[in-house]
């Protein structure tokens, strides 16, 4: 654990404030897009890996507000890049779930987290459409609109609802499809919602019992993983449990953690 030497409550407040302001911008753009306004769309790693002008606008707003509220802090953003600093580094996903945003599906969010030494110490995930605000500071619990969150306690593997996601590269997606087909025979069901930060928050709220995905960026999990952990989930981040795969993110209710982890391994998660 990092020795943070910072006010984590203050950092959570800043994260929520800035993410909320960006979410207002994103919501206005989403409403206009659904009303016929055109939004510029480009691609990144694949034709299915999209980025919109609104992603860039949202990140620019976040960076500008952080520069005002936390001058001197480093910022690492999905679209604008950056490197970690010696003190607080803000990790930003300006729209997590861009494909959902583009299609008009209202399951996307702005994610802002404060990290020290690569460890998330405060964060907020704000949904532009619903207005829901997920927040956490290390050691202080996790909250949804001020209501304290706690994970589920499923008693059996076959009663466990698991969230996951898929990569953009066809070869890896093919392997992931085989993995999910096998896993689906062992658990209650599998969900693929399309926004990692919100899937991690869903574990915190008990809307999912667990979540596993490979290949996430730091901005995808920085706030959501902290929220899940502060709600009582067992969380492993990329590089921490190589049997699940070197780039696996895993959040799970403790009551089912051991048998689900084994089921994931048996289903082939380690070779995705």
TrEMBL record:
Q: Name one GO molecular function term.
A: metal ion binding
Q: Where does Mg(2+) 1 bind?
A: 78, 95-96
The enzyme's E.C. designation: 3.1.3.25
Q: Name the chemical reaction catalysed here.
A: L-histidinol phosphate + H2O = L-histidinol + phosphate; a myo-inositol phosphate + H2O = myo-inositol + phosphate
What does this protein need as cofactor?
Answer: Mg(2+)
| Annotated keywords | Hydrolase, Magnesium, Metal-binding
Q: Which SUPFAM superfamilies match?
A: Carbohydrate phosphatase
Q: Which domain of life is it from?
A: Bacteria
- A GO BP annotation: signal transduction
Catalytic EC class:
hydrolase
- InterPro entries recorded for this chain? IMPase, Inositol_monoP_metal-BS, Inositol_monophosphatase-like, Inositol_monophosphatase_CS
What's the stated role of this polypeptide?
Catalyzes the dephosphorylation of histidinol-phosphate to histidinol, the direct precursor of histidine.
Spell out the PANTHER family in the cross-references: INOSITOL MONOPHOSPHATASE, INOSITOL-1-MONOPHOSPHATASE-RELATED
This one is known as Inositol-1-monophosphatase
Q: Which organism is it from?
A: Amycolatopsis regifaucium
């Amino acid at each position: 654990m990092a020795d943070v030497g910072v006010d984590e409550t203050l950092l959570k407040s800043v994260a929520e404030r800035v993410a909320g302001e960006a979410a207002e911008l994103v919501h206005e753009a989403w409403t206009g897009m659904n009303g016929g306004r055109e939004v510029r769309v480009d691609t990144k790693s694949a034709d299915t890996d999209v980025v919109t002008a609104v992603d860039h606008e949202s990140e620019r707003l976040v960076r500008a507000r952080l520069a005002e509220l936390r001058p001197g802090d480093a910022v690492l953003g999905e679209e604008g890049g950056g490197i970690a600093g010696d003190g607080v580094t803000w990790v930003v996903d300006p729209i997590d779930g861009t494909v959902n945003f583009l299609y008009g599906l209202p399951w996307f969010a702005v994610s802002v987290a404060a990290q020290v030494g690569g460890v998330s110490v405060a964060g907020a995930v704000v949904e532009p459409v619903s207005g829901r605000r997920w927040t956490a500071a290390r050691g202080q619990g996790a909250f949804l609109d001020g209501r304290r969150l706690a994970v589920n306690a499923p008693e059996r593997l076959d009663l466990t609802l698991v969230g996951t996601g898929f990569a953009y590269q066809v070869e890896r997606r093919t392997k992931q499809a085989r993995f999910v087909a096998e896993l689906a025979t062992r658990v209650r069901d599998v969900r693929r919602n399309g926004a990692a930060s919100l899937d991690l928050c869903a574990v915190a709220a008990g809307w999912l019992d667990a979540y596993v995905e490979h290949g996430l960026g730091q901005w995808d999990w920085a706030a959501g993983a902290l929220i899940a952990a502060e709600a009582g989930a067992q969380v492993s981040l990329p590089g921490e449990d190589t049997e699940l795969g070197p780039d696996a993110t895993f959040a799970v209710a403790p009551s089912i953690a051991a048998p689900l982890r084994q089921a994931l391994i048996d289903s082939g998660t380690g070779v995705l």
